[in-house]
Amino acid sequence: MLLSLTNAPRDYAWGSDSLLAGLEGRTPTGAPEAEVWFGDHPGDPADVAGGGTLDQVTGGTLPYLLKLLAAGRPLSIQVHPTIAQARAGWERESELAADDPQRNYRDDNHKPELIVALSERFESLSGLRPVDETLALLGLLDESEGVVQLRDRLGAGDDSLRDTIGWLLGGGANAAVDDIISAVVAASVRGDGDTGEWGTTLRAIASVAENYPGDPGVVVALLMNHVVLRRGEAVFLRAGLLHAYLSGLGVEIMAASDNVLRGGLTPKRIDVPELLAILDATPGEVPVLRPHGDGGVTAYPVPVPDFALTRIELDGTPVALDVSGPTMVLATDGQVAVASADGERIDVVVGAAAFASADEDTLSVSGVGEVFIASPGR
To answer: Does residue 59 contact residue 72 with C-beta atoms inside 8 Å?
Structure first.
C-alpha cells in the first residue's frame, strides 16, 4: 500500500520565514516555519491524502520520525537520554501529568538523531570541544574577570567540562556570563588576521548572543564544536551528546521520542542536575558524514536500529529499492514518483512524502530530482 503524506509546518519561534517556502516554491507566509513532521508521532501525525492521519494507519508503531527542519535562529542547546536513562526517568515521573512543566521525560525511549543539510550551508553546535582547544580560543579574548574564571574552571580537573556547564547554568555565574559574552562579541569584530581559524566560530557565537542576550547558554555554546555542513553532508547525534542547530535547512530523522533535556538558549525550564546526569561530557569532534556511493545513492550509516536514511539523486533512470518495514520517500528537489511492485504509483511533490506499508518489499523511484528514503534500521 502506498499513501501520500503532507503536513503543515510547525511555527516554532526559531523557524525560518523563507527556507521551507523556498524549497517548496511558494510565497512565504511571513511567519516562522520550523519543522514539517512525517511520522505517526501523536504530537503531530502526518496527514494522509484522502483523509485521516498516519497514526490511524500504523497504530503509532513507527520507530522513527522524519522531518524537514528550517532554522532561522538558533535552537535550544539540548541533549537526549539513552534508552536506560529514558526508562528510569519515565518511571520516576510516572505520577506527573503528561503536560506537567516539571516533567523531563515524555516517553521511555531514546532519541538519537541524524541531520542532513539541504541548504548550501547548515551551521550547528555538535559535541564538546577538547579543553585545550577551548583554552586556545579563550586566549584570543580580552582578559576579564569572567574569562579568567572560565579558564580556571576548565583547567580544574578531569570532569571540568561537566562542572563548568553546571556552574554556568546553575544561576551563580551571571556576572561572569555577561563578561564572557562581551569579550566574545568584541573579538568577533576583529579581522581574521587577529582571530585566525577561530574567526568563524567567534562570529557564530556572537550571533547566538545577539539572539539570546545574557543567556548562560551562549557560554555553553562557546565550549562546543562549531560544525558547518555543506549540502548533502550530515552529522549523527548520539545519546548524551550536547547539540544545537544554528541555521539552515535540513532533513532530520530520529527515533520516535520527545525526550529533551535543555542546556540553554531557551525560555523553557532547564533541569540542571538531570541535564548533567545524562550528559556525555567526553570531548571530541563529531564526524561529518559526506556524500558517497554509486549512481547518486548515498547511505548515512548510523549505529542504532531505529532508523536508516538514504539520499538518492535521480537523473531520469528509475532506481529499484529493496525495502524492509514501513518506508517513506521524501521529495526535496525536482519531479519524482514512487511505484510499488504491483504497479501502484504516486507522484511526490517537493516537500511531501510517500509512505509504503510494511507489506511492500520493493519500490521504484523515478524522475529527475532528489529523494530521501527513510526506513527502520537493519
So the answer is: no
Q: How many C-alpha atoms does 66 have within 13 Å on its Cβ side?
A: 31
* Of 336, 378, 374, 377, nearest in space to 38 by CA: 374
Note the pLDDT tens digit of each residue in 166-180: 999 999 999 999 999
Q: Please tell me the total number of residues recorded for the chain in this structure.
A: 378
Give me the CATH topology for the region 298-375: Jelly Rolls (2.60.120)
pLDDT digits (tens, 9 = 90+) for 323-351: 999 999 999 999 999 999 998 999 999 99
Q: What is the pTM of this model?
A: 0.95
List residues bridging with 115 in a β-sheet.
235, 252
Distances (CA, A) of 373 to 71, 79, 227, 308, 351: 22, 26, 25, 8, 13
Residue spans per domain, the chain: 8-125+229-289, 131-213, 298-375
CA pair distance 163, 172, nearest whole angstrom: 13
Of 234, 242, 237, the C-alpha closest to 283 is 242
Residue 283: closest CA among 159, 197, 181: 159
* CATH number for region 8-125+229-289: 2.60.120.10
State how beta strands 243-255 and 64-71 pair. Answer: antiparallel
